[in-house]
């Protein structure tokens, strides 16, 4: 039997991340051959991975990385089975190494095929599955390119990227703030202009039905009823709809006996309320139309405008689980 030294065990451990005993046993099985020992550990990982293939890797770490000039960003999730492993320093270090590699890739498939210290990323995940004893996989991959890209990561559970049209003086603050908005509020699209009319129509019908059902119960309990909107998106508020809303507001003011000379002071607030009540879908799903989390008196679009001649071109968001 080949004599296995502590130095050889430590070298294998540093190369693979495997435990001391696993490394020693692998070297013994490989009769001291370092490369064969790595193969032994890899085969062990394959066996563990096969056994855990049907496990749910719903925990893990979300990581965002930017290139040196902040024109490219990636956000990935390295998934595992338990929160205990997901918070482990070595696991998070591995996730960060994978994210650095991901900067040079255009898809999850490219990342899995990329080199990681002489093996593919896919093989590294199999190896580490054997080391850690849990199923590891890349559960999310997003990439964003723009004249300026910023990011925000929330406790390694959510990672967001935002692309700006220009690198203005305050681009770093703007990109981070909007990335934080993306992470916190989970927008699905940039603007209401991106919505398909069929989707908006179906969503309107569904939302009104829910509110009307809620109102039946509230009415039975003698409580205040919820407002039933006519619309849910700015995409529905055509010039004709807005003109009709203004006519209705004027008629209401007249019925309330308000002097016509003060209508100009009251109408803007009523129209603003009409828009707010009838754009709930936009406020939930459209990044630029959401209330800005740091100042709810304005929406994200207004906040972006305050930073000068710059706009948001796109965003990406990945989450653990």
Structure description:
36% of the residues are buried. The chain folds into 3 domains: 6-51, Orthogonal Bundle (Helicase, Ruva Protein, domain 3), CATH 1.10.8.10; 59-183, Elongation factor Ts, dimerisation domain (Tetrahydropterin Synthase, Chain A, 2-Layer Sandwich); 193-306, no CATH class. It contains 13 helices and 10 strands. The mean pLDDT is 91. By secondary structure, the protein is α+β, with helices and mostly antiparallel strands. The chain has helices at residues 6-16, 20-29, 34-51, 83-86, 89-102, 108-113, 121-132, 171-185, 197-220, 239-255, 263-277, 280-285, 300-305; strands at residues 59-66, 72-80, 115-116, 119-120, 137-145, 148-154, 158-164, 291-292, 295-299, 312-319. The strands form 4 sheets. A 3-stranded antiparallel β-sheet has the order 1-2-5. A 3-stranded antiparallel β-sheet has the order 6-7-10, covered by helices on one side. A two-stranded antiparallel sheet has the order 3-4.
Order of helices and strands: HHHEEHHHEEHEEEHHHHHEEHE
Q: What is the CATH topology classification name of the largest domain?
A: Tetrahydropterin Synthase, Chain A
- Strands, total number: 10
Q: Based on the coordinates given, report the CATH architecture of the largest domain.
A: 2-Layer Sandwich
Placed side by side, the strands forming the largest sheet appear as 1-2-5
Ranges where pLDDT stays below 50 over 5 or more residues in a row are: none
Q: Judging from the principal axes of the Cα atoms, what is the shape?
A: elongated
Rg over C-alpha atoms, rounded to the nearest angstrom:
28 Å
Approximate strand percentage? 15-25%
Average pLDDT, rounded to a whole number, is 91
CATH homology group of the largest domain: Elongation factor Ts, dimerisation domain
CATH class of the largest domain reads Alpha Beta
Supply the helix-strand structural class: alpha+beta
Please work out how many helical segments DSSP would assign. 13
Largest sheet: 3 strands, antiparallel
> What is the straight-line distance between the termini?
47 Å
- Total of domains: 3
Helix content: 40-55%
């Amino acid at each position: 039997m080949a004599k296995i030294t502590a130095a050889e065990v430590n070298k294998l451990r540093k190369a693979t991340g495997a435990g001391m005993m696993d490394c020693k046993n692998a070297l013994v099985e490989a009769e001291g051959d370092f490369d064969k020992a790595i193969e032994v550990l890899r085969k062990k990982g394959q066996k563990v991975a096969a056994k855990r293939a049907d496990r749910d890797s719903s925990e893990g770490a979300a990581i965002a990385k930017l290139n040196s000039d902040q024109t490219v960003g990636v956000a990935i999730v390295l998934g595992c089975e338990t929160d205990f492993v997901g918070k482990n320093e070595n696991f998070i270090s591995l996730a960060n190494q994978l994210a650095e590699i991901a900067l040079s890739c255009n898809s999850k498939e490219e990342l899995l095929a990329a080199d990681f210290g002489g093996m593919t990323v896919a093989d590294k995940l199999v190896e580490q599955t054997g080391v850690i004893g849990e199923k590891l996989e890349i559960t999310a991959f997003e990439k964003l390119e723009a004249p300026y890209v910023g990011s925000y990561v929330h406790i390694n559970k959510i990672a967001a990227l935002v692309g700006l049209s220009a690198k203005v003086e305050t681009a770093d603050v703007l990109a981070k703030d909007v990335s934080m908005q993306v992470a916190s509020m989970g927008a699905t699209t940039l603007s209401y202009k991106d919505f398909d009319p069929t989707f908006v129509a179906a969503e309107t019908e569904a939302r009104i039905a829910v509110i009307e059902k809620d109102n039946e119960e509230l009415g039975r309990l003698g409580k205040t009823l919820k407002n039933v909107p006519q619309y849910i998106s700015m995409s529905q508020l055509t010039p004709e709809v807005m003109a009709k809303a203004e006519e209705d507001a004027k008629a209401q003011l007249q019925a309330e006996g308000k002097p016509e000379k003060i209508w100009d002071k009251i109408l803007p607030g009523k129209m603003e309320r009409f828009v707010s009540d009838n754009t709930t879908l936009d406020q939930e799903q459209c990044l630029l139309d959401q209330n800005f989390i740091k100042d709810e008196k304005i929406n994200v679009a207004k906040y972006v405008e305050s930073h000068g001649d710059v706009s948001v071109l796109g965003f990406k968001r990945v989450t653990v689980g």
